[in-house]
Structure formats: structure tokens, C-alpha cells
Amino acid sequence: MDYSKAGLRKEEYDALKARLGREPNDLELQIMGVMWSEHCSYKSTKPLLRLFPKDGDRVLLGPGENAGVVDAGDGLGLAFKVESHNHPSAVAPYQGAATGVGGIIRDIMALGARPVASMDGLFFGDPEERKTQALADGVVKGVGGYGNCVGVPTVGGKTVYHESYRGNPLVNAFCAGLVPTDRMVSSQTASAGQKVLILGSKTGRDGIAGAAFASVELAEDGSGVPSIQIGDPFTEKLLIEACLELRDKDLLVSMQDMGAAGILSSSSEIAAKSGIAMTIDFDAVPLRAEGMEPWEIALSESQERMLLIVEPEKVDQVMAVAGKWELDCAVIGETEKGDHYRILWKGDTVADMPASVIGSDCPEIPWPSKRPENLEDRWNFDLDSLPLPENWNEEILNLLGSHSHRSRKEIFEQYDSMVQTNTVIGPGFPVSAVRIEGTDRLAVMSMEAQPFMCWLDPYNGSAEVVARSCRALAVAGAKPAGTTDCLNFPSPEKPEQFWTLEQSAKGMAEACSSLKCPVVSGNVSLYNETANGPILPTPLVGTVGFVENIEELLRSGDWSEGDRLFYVGMPNPRLDGGSYLLNKTGRIWGKPLDFDGELENEFILRAIETAKRRAASSGMPIAGGGLAVALAKEAGASGLGASISIPCPTRRDVLLFGEGGPRAVYSVPKNRLVLFRALWKGYAVTEIGQVGGDRLTLDNLVDLSVSEIRESWNL
Amino acid sequence: MNVAVVVFPGSNCDRDVVKAIKYATGDEAALVWHGETELPGETDLVVLPGGFSYGDYLRCGAMAHTAPIMADVKRHADRGGLVLGICNGFQVLTESKMLPGALLVNRDLAFICRPIEISVERDDTAFTSGYEKGQVITIPIAHYEGRYHLPENELELLEERGQVAFRYSGGNPNGALNDIAGIYNEGGNVLGMMPHPERYSDRAVGGDDGLPVWLSIKRWIERTGA
């Protein structure tokens, strides 16, 4: 077999031979083709991922396990991670999205955690186009179909529309789960003399070679499409309960979910990470298809399976738990002393390689990098060429009703956001918040992506992505404890695209370091392009923090009659790269603001104190659509108007619609005014009006009724 | 009160019901595995919780109603014991003929999860004495198959007998006949409802209009010693 058929490059094949000291056989070659695919090995991005800070006050477990874990207090850890399921969703929207949700839930389960919240980042083409509508509908139904059945609430997310995602939608699934820290399960703790078990669904031909598929561009004619994985959320639900029971009965030594490259990847990773040898007998694997070849068994991505490492004397008890939950469970191998990773099939040894070679790093690929020559062209937006709005009311309503800002309730109402009855803030707000059962504490989370800004200025745009998620958390009262990232990019093989990826990672790394928000887990999805072109650079983050109790959580959309309104932040936003400019001119252009860590940290500190000391009744970070959209959303969600007057040191449209940098609108009850002003003393803060009535007015420019705001926003 | 919450494979609101009852009444409800053949002795109330029993791969509730525990749930109901089926539990009750009618796919062919207004049709039952007749309350729904259906002549009979427990009052979300959101059996001791009272039993998670359901039941049990 030719190494290129296994997806390896010449250098990689040579490296493999050198490490093995011989030629691999066909099965071994296929194994390594998957293990060293981009999806599994991060060979294009490892040097970039090393830039991310990994340590923080609350980090219990950084990258390396199935998910990162931060300290949730009272002996609990919050495990969380985001993962992409882009290519499968392009081919089979419902199943692709559904199995994306299932896969990330199993990553969380692998740590012994009970999944408690999901979020989804969805990126679609032009929503006016029928093909996109059908695809988006399938994806949304897939996310809901799986998440609803499995009983994990979908509490938030992010949806972006842009023509570059036509034919290559992005589906990024986030999940968080809770685990007592003393019962956390690892994938690195196996030792010799233990049994290897497979728990869950039978192994079939579905999803074979999915990891390799995820590592190339999508072909127009649909060639190269593997058999797609089929999700079974019912089995997943049983699997969750069974794994938690195994955990609580202390029956597990080690556990790993089966994602990309199935049995092979999960078992060899445990062997390599634990530093032990392993023999797997493929004849013992429960199969659902007849006549499966060993490579098919090795690489099958059948869903809803977990690999368990169990002490021999506990195998019977594990079987009993599996039987109770009506799940298949079989002993398929054992751990041994040494370094071999051996596969038996029909009495023969069909593969025998050092586990350390399988688990070893693929040679990194230093792709050439080149700054796009036309980058400056994207920046040549000239503010003077843009006329001021003639009708401000119309501009605001148009923007609220645009695809950038229109309420996503038609999507999120198809998701069960309330099951487990801990959802304090569900979808439709800047952050989501769930109670941590058994404590007073809440986990606060935010999902963020800004592909337009990242395309214009990958470094600062990506830093802005991190900053926006941290600001949203801070306004709600939570200090960022950690973040998980999904780097969705086109092929790294084109130098200008690789440069963009590099810059983006550097910008995120700077923002994460500066804001003390470590990256605890993540995923890279490259080759997101079709014959129609590449997607916009789309780094996405899911950031998590905590508030000590529900009184210290500051909500948005919670104005009260008589509250005073404050604008905090420098009055220097830019229209560049923002949704107003896109809506007005149909173009993404301009130069986004540079990231300013000092200003961000000052903002975050004060915002957290504001929430903690209950100095405000409602807080809204200013993000897409600027101050105008923030005010309109606050009024719409609160069902109350306000009369506002605001000094304007710059152009009115820039002040009202500009984006970037730390800014927020607060409503402050009269008896908290002194405290609020004290907390923001020394920072740019302006009192801009008062809540009341059913109209939102701003100087003599804006005069809108709350009901027309709600209608345009589609609330 | 002694509450048994039945856990089918795929139930996912079982723990939520236990939590709501504990919060509302202080009582610890027992989780009862579907494979059991008998309810715990002294059971006052059986709750069939929401979720996707057996994945809802067949008709919703069709598999669950054949579960071993269901025979004893029926005996409990026949004795006049209280049974509350919520969402998937309502579907199990119609499949097992403990309640009339069927729950069909929503009119708009989409899952709907949102708080919704319903009116309380009776305030003289075990489940609703804590409300006032005609009171409009807000409780979330979360279902794909919640469109209540019954042949017309039976529907008239249902209405005449006062078996309608709750009606959608701020717009009908799923196309249910006569805006029906929940119904009683003839004896009034079995209630099936699509909205989830356990989800709005604590203001911290959105509202507490569901709380009176648990308090009504507890009071009823204490009064009747049932």
C-alpha cells in the first residue's frame, strides 16, 4: 500500500519507518495515517497551540486529557471543551450536527463528569438562500434531536451568517460537566495486568475514516465522503448513567471516549499516555456488520462507545452495571508490561508496533507563511465617504432585524434549554448561567466568535474574540477561569491562509495571557474550504467563570423604572468591521481597534466588582451593533423605555454603532448611585439617562417604542 | 408524602422532579427503576417523568407502557392512588390507556421549548387545589409530540365530564384540540400534562408557578390520608 493512500506525506512516512526500524504493514500504515492526520495530530498547529497560556488559579487539568477542568469549588471540577463537526455537517446536516453533540458529551463523560450544559456555534451561508435554509434547518434539528433526548440543556451559543460558509457550514459543539475532583477519571492511569473493555454500541462500518475526511478540503463532487456516523442519543443517555454509576462504584482505572479513529485511537492513546503495552483482540469486539476487516474495526467511528480500563476482579461488576443499562460490554484486551501495541484477529497478530511510536508526535509541518498582499485593501474604509443616517430610528430597527442581530429564538426554542432545572440564564443573552448543584455557586459561560474582524485583522480580531467573551463574563460578575477554543480555518497549505492562522493564534494567545484566561482544552479544524473558496478565519471560544451566589450574578435585560443609565468605556469605538457597516454598505471592511490589555483588565476588575456589590440592576456589554443595539436590546428585553442624552466627542454614528474595546451599559438604581460611581471612578464613565416609560429616546435623534423594538428584533 | 418517580431508560426529568418535590415540600421522592414489579409500599403519588423513554424511537411512550412497573402503576391508579404524568409521562399514560387520546407531532413539526401560559380549569382536584379556577400560570413546555388529539365525540364527553386540567391560554403552541395542555382520568386521580411544573418550581430558574402542584398534592394526601 502506498503511504499517500493512508494520508501520509513522504517525510512522515520516512519518520515512521525510522521510528519503527522497519516498513509498516498495511494495517499499521493505515493506523498511522489516522493517528497522524491533522485532526488527530495537530501537526500544522502544534507550534501555535504552544503559545496559549495553560495555567491559571483555577485550572485543575489543562490540555492533554479529553477536556480541561477548572475548580468549581466545594470539591467539584467543571470539565469543558468545544469541538468541531464541520465536514460531517456539510455532508449530512442532521447526523453531522447530532453526532457532534454526542461526541463532545462523551469527551466530558470521559473525565467522569456529568454533562450539565451545552452550547453551539453555528456558521451558515446566506440565510436567504434555500440551500442554506435547508442545511441550517437540518443542523438545528440535529443539535436539538440529540441534545434534547440525552437530557443536557443547550443553554446558549452563537450563530453567524456569511456566504463563505455556504457549502462548508461550521458546527462547533461545547459541553461542560461537573465531577467531584476526587472521583475524576483519567485516560493516562492504566497499568499492566488490567482488562480493556468496550462499553456501549456495537461497532459497525459507520464513520470509517472520518478523521482523515476532516483533514482535507471538501470536494465539490462529494468524493472522499466516508460513511457518515449515525447518532443514537438514547444509547448515549444510558451510557452517561452507566459511566457515572461505574465511577461512583469505583470500578474504573481509566476511561477514554471513542471519537475520531475509534477503538484504535482510544486504546493506543491510553497505552501511550500511560506508558504501558496493550493487546487488543478484534475477535472479541461486538460487531454490528458482517465480514468487517481489521482496519474497519480499528477505525470505525460508530458512536456511543467508551473504552474502559478495569481491574480484572472488577470486570463482573462492570458487566452487571452495563447489563442494568442494557448496554453491550465486552473484554477486548489487556494491558501488559512493555511498549508493544498489538492487534489480534482470527488468531493472527495483524499489527504490532511500539505504543510509544503510535502515541508519538507526528513530525510538525512548518507550512510557509506569507502576509496577504491585499490586506491593506481591506482596511481602506474612509469614514468621510459614509453619510450620516437620515433616519436614525430606521437604522436601529434595520440593524436589530438584520441577520447579524435578529433574535435566534427560532433556533434556540428548538433546544431544551431547561432540563436538569439549573438554567438561571438561558439562550438569548450575552452569557448563560447554570446553578452548580449542591452549592450556591453558578457557572457562567459565553461563546464568542467574530469572523469578520478576524478576516480584516486576524491578530486583533482574534484578541477581540477572547476579550468579548471575558467582558461578557465580567459584566455578569464572573472572573474568567478558563477558555476552550476551536480554530476553524481553511487549508494551511496556502501561505496567506497559514499566515492568517498564525496571526490569529498569536492574537488569541496575547489576549488570553493578558486577561489571565488560560486555554484548558480545544480543537483545530482546518481545510474548511470548497471550490467556491475558503471560509472566513473563525476562531471560536467558550469561556467559563463562576459567581459565588445568585445575588452576585448581574443579569442583562433587567432595567427597572427610574434606574439611571451609564455608559462605561472610552468613546472611541470604530465602525470598521462591525455589523452596522456591513448592513449599510454590504461590505466587511476597515481596520478593527487594536487590543489593549491594560484597558481590558481595568474594565474587567471594575465590572466584576459592580456585579458582586450589586451596584447595578442590569448590565450589557457593548458588542455587535454598538451602543445603539445594546440599548435597544436592554429596552426590548426589559420591556421598558428610557430617555437618553449623550455627549458626543466623535461622529454620532461612530459613537452609537461603533464596536471594539471594553464598553458596557449599566442601569443603576438610585440608592446604588454613589457606590456605582465610586467603583468606576478613574475610568471613562458617563451618565446618559434614565429608565422609564415605553419609548426609547436619544437626544432628538431616536424615538422608538419598546414594542417596535421587540418586533424588529423578533423577540 | 411518599412519592415514587419511575425511571425508564431515557427518562431525563426524573431527577428534576425529585428536586422540585424536595424544594417544594421537603419530602424525598424515591426513584423507581422501570424493571421493578412493585411500587414501594405506602406510595401516595407516582410520577412518570419527562424525557425520551426508549429513545421515543417507536411512538412516544409505546415501549414504556409495557415496562414491568407499569402493571403496578395501573393497580395503584385503580385503587384511586394519584398518578402524575409529565410530558413523556403523559404520553406513557395515553399509550397505556390510563388516559384517553393521543399526543401527536406538533403542528409546526418542530420541538418547542419555552415558558407558556396555561389556564387552570379546575381547582377542586388533588393536583390543583393550590390554584384558583381560571388562574393563568406560566410553566415551560419542551416537546416535539404534544398535540393532544381525541375523536370528536370523545372530546365532547371529556369536556362534559370536566376532565380538562389545563388549557393553553396565550396562544396554542402545538395545535392541541381545544387548547388542551393536560387532562384527568374520570376519577380525577390521574393527571397527564405536557407543561413541566417541576421546571418552574423555583424562582431561581425562571419561575415558580409550578410549585402549587406539589403543595396541592401534599395537602390532598395529608387530608385524605390516601
From TrEMBL, chain A:
Its main location: cytoplasm. The active site is at residues 39, 85. Substrate binds at residues 84-87, 106, 229, 301-303, 525. Its EC number is 6.3.5.3. One of its GO terms (biological process) is 'de novo' IMP biosynthetic process. Residues 64-179, 436-545 form the PurM-like N-terminal domain. It comes from the Bacteria. Residues 192-345, 561-694 form the PurM-like C-terminal domain. Keywords: ATP-binding, Cytoplasm, Ligase, Magnesium, Metal-binding, Nucleotide-binding, Purine biosynthesis. It is an enzyme of class 6 (ligase). It catalyses: N(2)-formyl-N(1)-(5-phospho-beta-D-ribosyl)glycinamide + L-glutamine + ATP + H2O = 2-formamido-N(1)-(5-O-phospho-beta-D-ribosyl)acetamidine + L-glutamate + ADP + phosphate + H(+). ATP binds at residues 42, 81, 485, 522. SUPFAM superfamilies: PurM C-terminal domain-like, PurM N-terminal domain-like. GO terms for molecular function: ATP binding; magnesium ion binding; phosphoribosylformylglycinamidine synthase activity. Mg(2+) 1 binds at residues 83, 523. Pathway: Purine metabolism; IMP biosynthesis via de novo pathway; 5-amino-1-(5-phospho-D-ribosyl)imidazole from N(2)-formyl-N(1)-(5-phospho-D-ribosyl)glycinamide: step 1/2. Residues 3-43 form the Phosphoribosylformylglycinamidine synthase linker domain. It is found in: Cytoplasm. InterPro entries: PRibForGlyAmidine_synth_PurL, PurL_linker, PurM-like_C_dom, PurM-like_C_sf, PurM-like_N, PurM-like_N_sf. One of its GO terms (cellular component) is cytoplasm. Monomer. Part of the FGAM synthase complex composed of 1 PurL, 1 PurQ and 2 PurS subunits. Belongs to the FGAMS family. Part of the phosphoribosylformylglycinamidine synthase complex involved in the purines biosynthetic pathway. Catalyzes the ATP-dependent conversion of formylglycinamide ribonucleotide (FGAR) and glutamine to yield formylglycinamidine ribonucleotide (FGAM) and glutamate. The FGAM synthase complex is composed of three subunits. PurQ produces an ammonia molecule by converting glutamine to glutamate. PurL transfers the ammonia molecule to FGAR to form FGAM in an ATP-dependent manner. This is Phosphoribosylformylglycinamidine synthase subunit PurL. The gene is purL.
From TrEMBL, chain B:
Transmembrane segments: none annotated. CDD domains: GATase1_FGAR_AT. Its EC number is 6.3.5.3, 3.5.1.2. InterPro entries: Class_I_gatase-like, PRibForGlyAmidine_synth_PurQ. The keyword Transmembrane does not apply. The keyword RNA-binding does not apply. Part of the phosphoribosylformylglycinamidine synthase complex involved in the purines biosynthetic pathway. Catalyzes the ATP-dependent conversion of formylglycinamide ribonucleotide (FGAR) and glutamine to yield formylglycinamidine ribonucleotide (FGAM) and glutamate. The FGAM synthase complex is composed of three subunits. PurQ produces an ammonia molecule by converting glutamine to glutamate. PurL transfers the ammonia molecule to FGAR to form FGAM in an ATP-dependent manner. HAMAP family: PurQ. This is Phosphoribosylformylglycinamidine synthase subunit PurQ. It comes from Dethiosulfovibrio peptidovorans DSM 11002.
